[in-house]
Design brief:
heterodimer, A: alpha/beta, seven-stranded antiparallel sheet, seven-stranded mixed sheet, 5 helices, globular, B: four-stranded antiparallel sheet
Chain lengths: ~270, ~325
């Protein structure tokens, strides 16, 4: 799908809430009227909900299961996420969707190695669903502070993915950062392509590994957004417009959120790790 | 009994010599270069688009974080990230001149010479109907608000633009000007064709936990419904100080807010922050404005300009 095509303001109703931890939920929505659920893995929705603050908030499309059903992974960070997490079943939202760039599927002779931190797994649920539908698998590396921060592991296993986990407190999987799992995964994949989404420090570490190994690496970078439509210029990332070219502030809502990681100028990124 | 119980309401307005099909204008900096909202916003309800502010050269803008939500509003310090006038003419203008709404270019200079040069370049740009002169951006080191705070500087910026173009010249005033009616009279003398206001209000927010400012630029501009009563007051004061048409803006969320600005003296209005929240605002506001006019037996929306009912006026 070409960027920006087919987006619309879709009204939807909350139909199912899956509590993943004390501060994270997977919310399933059904569209109302003639609104369609669509979008590619990596694209996002700008969501407006009563009581959720003035501006819309961006959420990765975590799942699209039919022409009328989509899901968002929400972790509580403020008034916007809180309003969604307390929205009663049947409550309505307004969703500008699908927005932004998508993750490309791996080349036909390649295996995707996915590195996700915390709520950064969201776009990969849909990504792995699509892989499964085309009979493919991927290595999925999930990281979190604690066991409870590893969301939806069962979904990835159900899709037939090779799931490996790390927790900083050692309560599940390999103790430490998820990035420690990357080398083995790349070796096991043979001809790997990297995809990542999560905290900036993790993305930067994966970008270094990918760069050293000369591997394709797509990264999803989320920034605070005002409009999601490319107009407020609030969500910018310092990045090269073409490989080796000059850098400028690109919009994570329009040129992103999925970028080729080698275009991101990490050292100019002023966001805290 | 009326022979025509639901007459057509005339939403047309004339401002600075521009005949607009609707008094609703997209505010500069909130509608990109004009084509971004295609397929989502109803362009048929938009009278004009004031495009993103332009300098002669491209500008990178401020580092992030650039925006922060505040009670009923938002802070921004984008710092006028823009593509420069040449790329605008070559790449952006051809995409927007056939969209329907009248196109107003918005210019900002770091010097009087730059304002003049931009005006000369735009004068023969096909598809540009008017020039809004940004003398009120709070987020750039040079130009912007420095011109708008001072009546002399504001007048000089408008005069140099006036000399550079035959197009309508619309200075956008800053709420930070000490004496807005005085600035208004001076830019009128300098050749302005209309006045637009208000730009954002310089403001600041701090993260109590980290003790850091919410914006990398520390200070930003406050917009949204939070500033609307201030904007309405300023439009009222400015409209009484000039015979020029006034374009009012500040936190408009719908038709009742539009009417508020019109009654205070505005001929047209701009919608900015709330377009981010609800791109459907154009269609909804246009329809609600028609419904308001019918309910109040108003045949033409321009009848509302300055029609404030004051205590004791018998209205």
């Amino acid at each position: 799908m070409e960027n920006g095509i087919g987006r619309e303001d879709v009204a939807a109703r909350l139909v199912e809430r899956q509590r993943l931890s004390e501060d994270a939920q997977l919310l399933r929505f059904r569209t109302l009227g003639d609104g369609t659920a669509s979008g590619l893995p990596g694209q996002f929705a700008m969501v407006r909900v009563a009581g959720g603050g003035l501006l819309r908030r961006p959420y990765s499309l975590a799942d699209v299961t039919s022409k009328r059903e989509f899901a968002l992974l929400v972790k509580e960070v403020g008034v916007g996420t809180r309003a969604l997490m307390t929205l009663p079943i049947g409550g309505e939202t307004s969703n500008l969707t699908p927005l932004g760039t998508a993750f490309r599927p791996p080349g036909s002779d390649r295996t995707a190695v996915i590195v996700a931190g915390g709520v950064g797994i969201a776009p990969f649920v849909l990504y792995c669903r699509r892989l499964m539908e085309s009979g493919r698998s991927a290595i999925v590396l999930l990281g979190g502070r604690r066991h409870r921060d590893l969301y939806l592991m069962d979904a990835f296993e159900r899709f037939g993915m090779d799931v490996r986990v790390a927790t900083e407190d050692g309560s599940r999987g390999t103790p430490g950062f998820v990035t420690a799992l990357v080398d083995d995964a790349l070796a096991d994949a043979g001809a790997p392509e990297l995809l990542s989404c999560g905290p900036t420090g993790m993305l930067r570490a994966v970008a270094r590994l990918a760069s050293a190994a000369g591997l394709s690496h797509q990264v999803s970078i989320e920034r605070r957004m005002g409009c999601g439509m490319g107009c407020c210029l609030g969500c910018v990332v310092w990045a090269e417009t073409r490989a080796g070219g000059p850098a400028e502030y690109l919009r994570s809502c329009t040129e992103g959120p999925v970028f080729d990681a080698d275009r991101i100028v990490w050292d100019r990124d002023p966001h805290p790790l | 009994m009326s022979p025509n119980p639901t007459p057509e309401v005339d939403l047309g307005v004339e401002v600075a010599g521009l005949r607009l099909a609707s008094p609703l204008i997209a505010a500069s900096g909130t509608f990109g270069y004009g084509d971004e909202y295609q397929g989502v916003a109803d362009y048929g309800a938009i009278g004009a688009i004031s495009a993103k502010g332009l300098y002669l050269e491209p500008r990178p803008g401020c580092p992030p974080p650039r925006i922060w939500e505040t009670p009923s509003g938002m802070l921004n310090a984008i710092g006028l990230q823009e593509v420069g006038i040449r790329r605008f003419l070559k790449e952006k203008l051809p995409k927007i001149r056939d969209l329907g709404p009248t196109l107003i270019a918005n210019i900002c200079g770091s010097s009087l010479e730059e304002y003049g040069e931009l005006a000369r370049i735009l004068d023969d740009a096909e598809g540009v109907a008017g020039i809004e002169v940004n003398i009120s951006c709070p987020n750039v080191a040079e130009g912007g608000i420095e011109f708008g705070r001072d009546p002399d500087m504001a007048a000089r910026a408008v005069a140099v633009v006036r000399r550079g173009t035959r197009l309508p010249v619309i200075p956008k005033l800053s709420p930070s000007a000490g004496d807005l009616p005085q600035v208004t009279r001076r830019v009128e003398e300098a050749g302005a064709d209309a006045i637009s206001l208000i730009n954002t209000i310089p403001a600041m927010a701090i993260d109590a936990e980290t003790r850091r400012p919410r914006l990398a630029n520390i200070i930003g501009g406050l917009s949204g419904p939070a500033i609307r009563p201030i904007a309405v007051r300023m439009v009222w004061q400015v409209a009484r100080a000039t015979r020029l048409p006034v374009i009012g803006m500040g936190g408009i969320t719908g038709a009742a807010d539009v009417v508020e600005f019109l009654l205070a003296g505005a001929t047209a209005v701009q919608i900015g922050t709330m377009n981010f929240v609800d791109p459907g605002i154009w269609k909804r506001t246009r329809n609600d404005l028609i419904a308001y006019c019918r309910r109040h037996q108003v045949l033409a929306v321009r009848e509302l300009t300055g029609a404030l009912a004051l205590p004791g006026s018998g209205a």
